[in-house]
Amino acid sequence: KNEVEQSPQNLTAQEGEFITINCSYSVGISALHWLQQHPGGGIVSLFMLSSGKKKHGRLIATINIQEKHSSLHITASHPRDSAVYICAAGSQGNLIFGKGTKLSVKP
Amino acid sequence: GAVVSQHPSWVICKSGTSVKIECRSLDFQATTMFWYRQFPKQSLMLMATSNEGSKATYEQGVEKDKFLINHASLTLSTLTVTSAHPEDSSFYICSADRTSGANVLTFGAGSRLTVL
């Protein structure tokens, strides 16, 4: 069993749909990161969470420390949101990464 | 906001040559930087922790003599892949800790290495 599990692995949505990507972890953490990776490979850091909820534009990230679970939500999805979303958990830069969720948003 | 610049973004080299990848924090000092790699269709994995002014700490299975890390200043860490082989072809990414130990990480955009 991986220490950081993401679901789903692949997700196809229609433009405008509300999207949820889940991440469960079994390691002890001081922070959880959500990253976005585009087809060329470039990484963009979306959120770093240690508790509660964060919002940035159409993106919302939540974490439940007791349940060791985090979710990334995208409201009013758009084709430009198509990317791989990666959850990473750990302490400082010593992170364990999930395998990623490949999101495709169709117009 | 804090920016980490990674260069080059992609590089192709011949087998047996060495390649240097730079990770630079542009507007903050980073006492600690981290290097990761991602093989095709696999997760990112931590390779090593780079500490300014001291030796890097390598994860199990990462050859320190092959992947040379230098963190000579508070804004620059370099990863040199020595005597590169095709199996070293991978996506290499760095991150920098903006406030030591406070988990405020900024990631570089990554460097794709292809060894022919």
Major sheet size, sense and barrel closure of chain A: 6 strands, mixed
Helix content of chain A: under 10%
Distance between the termini of chain B: 37 Å
Secondary-structure element pattern of chain A, one letter each? EEEEEEEEEEE
Description:
The complex is a heterodimer of chains A (107) and B (116). Chain A has 107 residues and is mainly beta. Chain A is built from no helices and 11 strands. In chain A, a hairpin with a 2-residue loop joins strand 9 (83-91) and strand 10. Chain A is globular and about 40 Å long. By secondary structure, chain B is an all-beta fold. In chain B, strand 9 and strand 10 form a beta hairpin. Helix content of chain B is 0%, strand content 52%. The A-B interface holds A 30-31, 33, 35, 40-45, 48, 50, 86, 88, 91-100 and B 9, 32-34, 36, 38, 42-46, 49, 91, 93, 95, 97, 101, 103-110, 112.
Short description:
Chain A is mostly beta strands and 107 residues long.
Keywords:
heterodimer; A: 107 residues; mainly beta; six-stranded mixed sheet; five-stranded antiparallel sheet; B: 116 residues; seven-stranded mixed sheet
Produce the secondary structure layout.
The complex is a heterodimer of chains A (107) and B (116).
Chain A: E1 4-7, E2 10-14, E3 19-25, E4 31-37, E5 43-49, E6 52-56, E7 59-64, E8 69-74, E9 83-91, E10 94-97, E11 101-106
Parallel strand pairs in A: 2-11
Antiparallel strand pairs in A: 1-3, 3-8, 4-5, 4-9, 6-7, 7-8, 9-10, 9-11
Chain B: E1 4-7, E2 10-13, E3 19-25, E4 32-38, E5 45-51, E6 57-58, E7 67-73, E8 76-81, E9 90-97, E10 105-107, E11 111-115
